[in-house]
Amino acid sequence: MTSNLSVSVLNSGYRPIPGGPGWDPTEQATWPARTSTLIAGDRDAMLVDAFLTKSEGEDLAEWVSRSGKSPSTVFITHGHGDHFFGAGPTLAAYPDAQLVTLSPQVASEAGGQVGPEGMAVWNGWFAGQFDENPAVPAALTSGELEIEGHPVHLSVAGLADGVLGAIVHVPDIATVCSGDVLYNNIHMWLWNSTPDSRAAWLASMDAVASLRPDTIITGHKDPAAPDDNAARILDQSRRYLEDFDQAVARAGSAAEVIDAMMEKYAAYGNPYTLFAAAASQF
After folding, report:
1. 11: exposed, middle or buried (C-beta count within 10 Å: 0-12, 13-18, 19+)?
2. Is 3's pLDDT higher than 90?
3. Contact 31/17 with Cβ under 8 angstroms?
4. Is 102 within the bounds of a domain?
5. Confidence label for 2 from pLDDT (cuts 50, 70 and 90)
6. Least CB-packed of 73, 89, 115, 121 within 10 Å?
7. Are 30 and 268 in contact (CB under 8 A)?
8. How far is CA 96 from CA 58, 66, 71, 92, in A?
9. Other CB atoms within 10 A of residue 119 CB
């Protein structure tokens, strides 16, 4: 007999960062809020994504400990350091847990984040705040796992915010952890995106939609987002991507892109993301 499943989500909140050239110095630039999700049976569990900074990692390990569950797997959805640099404290607390991802490409992209070039980028934003020797996820040989008799399907959805994105599908509870394939009430990371990469991202969203989830836990979620309703999240993420594509095609400057997007998305979290995305287009 299978156990009951529970899903709990911890939100990192926003973190202050240097805004850089062109950013309004009277406004605090921030890094987008992230999620870590604990999918659990009576005892066994899977943790999906693991934050960035040392303090976030410590908070995450304490949160997992309070749950009373023992994660056997820490699954990383994609190779951006803000989703796995903070795994250390949880791995120390649960030494039998495996830090994994699905695709060798995702593992390779994660490995690139800990090289000199990747470290230089992260130090530009979070110097002294993160583990500069983080564990890097290993690639699984199969996308089929289970939690106390409940199947968990891992798959590669496709290109998302600059890198390949894997997702976690738990059919028994109609839930998907989408990583950064989808966003929830936060400006999307479209830095250096192109029409082709944005089209590929839309196709990745379609891959998630084909699973017909009721609930989607996104990798970036505003702490005040109203819910995790799959239909709403799919619709808003698609519209944001399409609107950004159209704004770039029509605009003659980054400021025009920002103005066009803020007309529709002023309530979304982390405007610095939009600033960076718009600036990269010109």
Report:
1. middle
2. no
3. yes
4. yes
5. confident
6. 115
7. no
8. 18, 18, 8, 9
9. 15
For residue 128, give the CATH number of its domain: 3.60.15.10
Residue 138 has pLDDT above 70, yes or no: yes
- The Cβ of residue 79 has, within 10 Å, a number of other Cβ atoms equal to 26
The model's pLDDT over 228-280, given as tens digits with 9 standing for 90+, comes to 999 999 999 999 999 999 999 999 999 999 999 999 999 999 999 999 999 99
Q: Which two tokens stand for residue 267?
A: 């309530």
Residue 88 maps to a domain: yes
Number of domains in the chain: 1
pLDDT-derived band of residue 156, with 50, 70 and 90 as boundaries?
Answer: very high
Is 183 in contact with 240 (CB distance < 8 Å)? yes
Q: Give the C-alpha separation, 159 to 156, whole Å.
A: 9
Residue range of the domain that includes 179: 6-279
